[in-house]
Amino acid sequence: MHRAFASSRPLQLAFGLTLTAALSACPDGGSGVTTESTGGPTGGDPTGSSEATDGTSSGGPTAPTTGDEPTGTATTSVDPTAGDPTGTTANTTGPDETTGPDETTGDPPVDPGWSERDYARVFLSGHSLTDNPLADFMLEIAAGVGVDLNYNQQIGIGSPIRVRTLGGSWDNLDWPGYKTGKNREGSDMDVIAELKAPQTLGPGELYDTLVITERHDILGTIQWEDTTGLLRHYHDRLIDGNPAGQTLLYHSWLGMDKAAPEAWITHEKNALFAWECVAAKVNHTLEAEGRPDRVTTLPVGAALVHLVEAVLADEVAGIEGAVNQKLDQLFSDDVHLTPLGAYYAALVTHAAVFRSSPVGAPVPQGVPSEPAADLQQLAWEFVRDYYTNAASGQHTMEECRAFIADQVCASFWTLLNEPGSISGCSDHFSNADAEGNPFRWPDPQLMVWPAP
Fold first, then answer.
1. Which helix (H) or strand (E) is 427 found in, with range?
2. Residue 452's closest CA among 225, 282, 283, 241?
3. pLDDT at 447
4. Which first-to-last residue range defines the signal peptide (predicted)?
5. Which of 9-23, 212-226, 263-277 has the lowest mean pLDDT?
6. What are the distances in angstroms from CA 158 to CA 10, 164, 228, 309?
7. Interatomic CA distance for residues 387 and 432, integer angstroms
8. 97 FRET partner, CA 20 to 30 A, in 41, 168, 237, 413?
9. What would the pLDDT profile of 289-304 be if each residue is shown by its tens digit?
């Protein structure tokens, strides 16, 4: 039964061919939205890197949110419940509504107490936007402010979560993707085994935090790469080793035109909603099983927008010049960060993991010192305000469908200079019954991946 389920996914991917035209309009030959470098129809690296991910050919392209409904997919169903301890109900309406007024947002993704931590054991799973020096800078920040951090990582350049779990084929239910990627030392660690019984931490230590990102074209991965299902699978591997663990879904960002960043700013503000909706859907599935653990969004992309706006308003010391000259100090190309930009991402991630201020942290070698104090303050203010706001990330599935269809589709395809794709994207995500649109609850189409 599981094999029939897995084998149907390439049929869905067959509808992705139209993305190639969109990629041709992206800066740097398609660095705005691509898949891992596997020789597939879209090629490239969504993070703009020319590096390839080993062994990741999926047999099909990814990501156009065109509204074409995928071919029927066999599913493994569960008995979801729609209970919500907060009693919050949907308050907006959307097309093709099927879930009704009992739809809820699920448990709040933020800790109402938001108490500080002084210890964290982090596993980081991502691609080039979360590659070193991000974790290296986090270590320096933690040591400098007197908290205890250790980590390991799985980095697959250009990879969606699917490649870091299933690997290159939807049929790989022995989960070879968990044994791929660059680690803190060496490569191809058995991540499942490491999360369950860590061999690279101190004696008796467990991972308490998973920081994981999806490929940055989040609308495409939601539709074509089963982001919600495979995020849940990875989160479960953390919980296998530590039932008290927490997962932070790291908001990655698309490429920008540094001479005219307005479309990028608009989109990444909108895109945060989509990342939050992914976390909300996973939390519904956890709640349905009576579990207390949850996935929380780590809004790095939105925090980066906050920094860009401050820089453009001349509110950051030591960053001057024309618009593109200012942004050149944060971005090394259209999407990757300079050491200064990576330091800011590390400050944001530190603040989210430890729930405490990084103000006063040391400045790593190679990072300009003059802007550092402003970056520390901006990172802390953004993270603190996000996690102490009870409304952050609180979206019903109906609200997710409506906002993504009305706002995110438009800003996504406008940024890619493909306005003709907006309508199909909106049609797809507004339709609660569409396969490849996970934003419904209860979910009769819910697909559950088997444990290893």
1. helix 422-430
2. 241
3. 87
4. 1-25
5. 9-23
6. 19, 11, 18, 27
7. 29
8. 413
9. 999 999 999 999 999 9
| Tokens linked to 225 | 């790469």
- Percentage of the chain beyond pLDDT 90 is 74
Fold of domain 2-430: Rossmann fold (3.40.50)
Site of tokens 């999360």 = 195
Round to whole Å and give the CA distance between 383 and 196: 29
From residue 188, how far is each of 44, 154, 437 by CA, in Å? 22, 8, 32
Residue 56's closest CA among 89, 27, 34?
34
pLDDT at position 103: 56
Q: How many CB atoms lie within 10 A of CB 338?
A: 18
Cα-flanking dihedrals φ and ψ of residue 350, to 5°?
Answer: -55, -50
Tokens 């979206």 belong to 395
- Signed CA dihedral, 415, 418, 423, 427: sign only: negative
Residue whose entry in the numeric block shows the structure tokens 């490569």: 187
3-state secondary structure of 119: strand
Which H or E run contains 424?
A: helix 422-430
Residue with the two structure tokens 């925090």: 303
DSSP class of residue 151 equals E
**Residue 77 pLDDT > 70:** no
Residue entry with tokens 């490491």: 194
> Taking a C-beta distance cutoff of 8 angstroms, is the pair 366, 252 a contact?
no
Q: State the DSSP code for 130.
A: G
